[in-house]
Amino acid sequence: MAKLVLIRHGQSEWNALNLFNGWVDTKLSDKGVAQAKTAGQLLAKEGIQFDQAYTSVLTRAITTLHLALEETDQMWIPEVKSWRLNERHYGALQGLNKADAAKKWGDDQVHQWRRSYDVLPPLLEEQSETMTIDGKTYPALDRRYQDVPAGEMPKGENLKVTLDRVLPFWDSDISKALKAGKNVIIGAHGNSLRALVKHIEQISDDDIMGVEIANGEPWVYDLDEDLNVVSKNILKPEA
Fold first, then answer.
1. How far apart are CA 38 and CA 71, in angstroms?
2. Backbone angles phi, psi at 92, to 5 degrees
3. Of 9, 71, 157, 189, which residue is the catalytic one?
4. Are 60 and 28 in contact (CB under 8 A)?
5. Cα-based torsion angle of the residue sequence 59, 82, 87, 131 in order, rounded to the nearest 10 degrees
6. pLDDT 10s digits, 38-97
């Protein structure tokens, strides 16, 4: 039996502004910092002893993981960062206000882009080192992505494409740690975690539209030796 804990990062600066974030590297808001610490306190109460941590290469997820682990006195555990755990890439929507996008394209269309399994957002037409979104450089040529295979740098993703991106890392690293009996914690993003949840729980393409992972609320799974879900518990702060 191994435990798997998933934590969506706390509120980011762009979450607070209601902007599409995606791969743009924003920091946690003050509220997000508090959410990350609360997540760690909830895990500390559970007494889970972790063996391995994974996160994306985006600051808001890394910071959330570190703050949560600090609350459990387990910052020392091994940690692996991978671009494959990044948030889904929102393409040309990145940096746009979600309410403004709804006014432009309609609520139903924006809902489809945000929540559907296989509907792509508008794609970026180009990616360059100098492209900026609200003053932040687009990461296409950022050196943190130098190991991304040729042709795999996204210009926009739906959840299906995000799952295709995440699964190779699940197979090569995360699942092996779990099968070895290690307790694993993953600090990542709403959609990269939804992709993992879809895979772990074998959720249908239609039903995954209704799955929402709240900021800073740990999802705790007990998994058997074949990584089947034995139990699941979502830890929520007291009201």
1. 8
2. -70, -10
3. 9
4. yes
5. 70
6. 999 999 999 999 999 999 999 999 999 999 999 999 999 999 999 999 999 998 898 889
Residue 190, annotated as binding a ligand? yes
The answer to the question of whether 165 is labelled as a binding residue is no
pLDDT in tens, 45-58: 999 999 999 999 99
Q: Crossing angle for the helix pair 107-115 and 98-105, nearest 10 degrees?
A: 120
Is 13 labeled as ligand-binding? yes
Question: With b meaning 16 or more CB within 10 Å and e meaning fewer, what string describes 14-32?
Answer: bbeeebbbbbbbbebbeeb
Question: 137 has which bridge partners?
Answer: 132
Dist CA 81 CA 58 (whole Å): 9
In angstroms, rounded to a whole number, what is the distance separating the alpha carbons of residues 60 and 63?
Answer: 5
The single residue of 71, 87, 157, 189 carrying the catalytic annotation is: 87
* pTM (global) more than 0.90: yes
Would you call 79 helix, strand, or coil by DSSP? Answer: strand
Active-site annotation holds for 70: no
Residues of the chain with pLDDT under 50: 129-131, 133-137
8 is in an annotated binding site: yes
Structure tokens at 98: 């979600």
Q: Known catalytic residue: 199?
A: no
Neighbouring residues of 214: CB distance < 8 A, sequence distance ≥ 6: 8, 236
